[in-house]
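Entry for alpha-L-arabinofuranose complex. Fields follow.
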Amino acid sequence: MKTLLTTLALAAGLTAVAQTTDTHELVIQTKKVGAQIQPTMYGLFFEDINYAADGGLYAELVKNRSFEFPNNHLQGWKVAGKVEVKTDGPFDRNPHYVRLNGSGHGHKHTVIENEGFFGIGVKQGEKYRFSVWARTTKAGGSAKIYAEIANTRSMGENQGLAGTEIIIDSPEWKQYEVVLTPSATEEKAVLRLFLRGQNGVDVEHVSLFPVDTWNGHKNGLRKDLVQALADVKPGVFRFPGGCIVEGTDLDTRYNWKNSVGPVENRPLNENRWQYTFTHRFFPDYYQSYGLGFYEYFLMSEEIGAEPLPVLSVGLACQYQNDDIHAHVPVDELDSYVQDALDLIEFANGATDTKWGKLRADMGHPEPFNMKFLGIGNEQWSSLFTERLEVFVKAIREKYPEINIIGSSGPNSEGRDFDYLWPEMKRLEVDLVDEHFYRPESWFLAAGNRYDNYDRKGPKVFAGEYACHGANGKKWNHFNAALLEAAFMTNLERNADIVHMATYAPLFAHVEGWQWRPDMIWFDNLRSVKTCSYYVQQLYSHNKGTNVLPLTMDGQTVSGQEGQDGLFASAVWDNETNTYIVKVINVGEQSQPLTLNFAGLKKNVILTDGKVITFHADDLLKDNTVEAPNTIVPVESSLAIDGNVLNTRIGAKTFCVYKFVKSSK
Ligand code: AHR
């Protein structure tokens, strides 16, 4: 039942005019502090898709730095003069390197030039660390190379932006390092390595990093991108991906053991997103593993998120492999199960264990205190459950404290979903990873999805979701973000069983994407937070500590018939003594709204009122790297009269209302 509210509207000239309007009264039961909201509730899902790792988060600027791209060991490089690719290098898992021979003439040159990832982005006055493993090709004497960052698009006299000569003084392999400081900003520079003189040099693992990485780590991550992640205050960080965990075949699955240890000797992996979509084809997309499990754990710790690694269950991508022989037979899973057990030891084990020692040697003697482990990504049928069962048994036996995450498959409902949920209960996994990339109609209708879930079974991890828009609108835009916000009221209301949620995917390079929408876009120098990012951030920053019941006419506010496109949820934050109400109006009309904080004691007043409003005039637009701050949440203060707020929420708007509980 809607109540009749008499509001005072101030007409021009400050004349008070009485108006009678139907309002939507949302009743928040302040006395019924409900389920605890998990610290992990709102998190991040990282997948190495869209050049999210190499060419993105991983700050290395040189592509194919170890000359291991298998189809062409000089892919990404231009060469001039006398250059040979050799195979007996110092790193056994990356054996290729390049020999720069004297050109034979004082006016000819031997040079290799790296194109980077869609170019090499450098900023004027910033420091870049160039390093190379090198040796002279002849015993005795020395040789010289000249490392240069160059702008090939320059109309100036000199293409060089920064350069320095390095003397290679030994026939033994050594790492040489210099810092280069470009004289200008350039998004698409190249790195050149000239041989100076006629004495030859062998070069391997040619690298260029900004010195100013996230937390200054040497094998570091792009600062602006990690900062954007930290700014979400994520509770959990799922990595290294979805489908890349599985691989197109087992050989190309993500192998965490190849991603740890000295960076020069981490073998290359094929990135399946190179060719998964031939309509977005990227023949130079590989995984250097330079951003590996150690770096993921470290970053999770530094941004305050629980690490949540996902491992292969022994199934190659089921979409791409009908043949049973593509997968690991159930009775041959030992090494896969051992990978899982060893990962737990790597993350949490004492420094006198094999894998704990490696973690310590890499710089982190303290355990990472990993609590969650995903086994398998989007898997289905008994192929999955019979394999998962083997993992569950082994992990429970050795590490009962680890929370195991199973899966309900790639779909939000349907045959596989219906088969898998009971199976996940039977296997007693701790959480079930649900995925839903669905259209607007689904998001609008899913406002009560979790209300009737079994409260006793495993908890829900909404591990990948995004609104994909209808009629091919599969790109980032405000309306999709708004519907995600609406749907999330349902996660929040059911926080007793929904323990984690992560939007997907996280990153996309504007020139290298295979999948949209994504949370953060970037080019070589800039990054941009999308509307979906801001929705995630608003929820995370305002997640509170406990659910509060919120109803309209005794019903949940979930876009139901007669609710005029409203979705809402409420939480209490006992750390800041704040009531937080999230309301989303997905409708075309603004709506009158009443927030009734019911049950407050007489000596309580609500103070420090705020409303954060998120709205875009053009529903199909989003922020871009060129105009990153076009659609952003806006905060303003708000007065409340007693325990009732009478207000309006605009059409197509997400509002977060906050009031501090104070004493009179
Ligand atoms: O993130 C994009 C892909 O979507 C993931 O790899 C997969 O899990 C899902 O299908």
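NOTE: The first strand starts at residue 4 and ends at 11.
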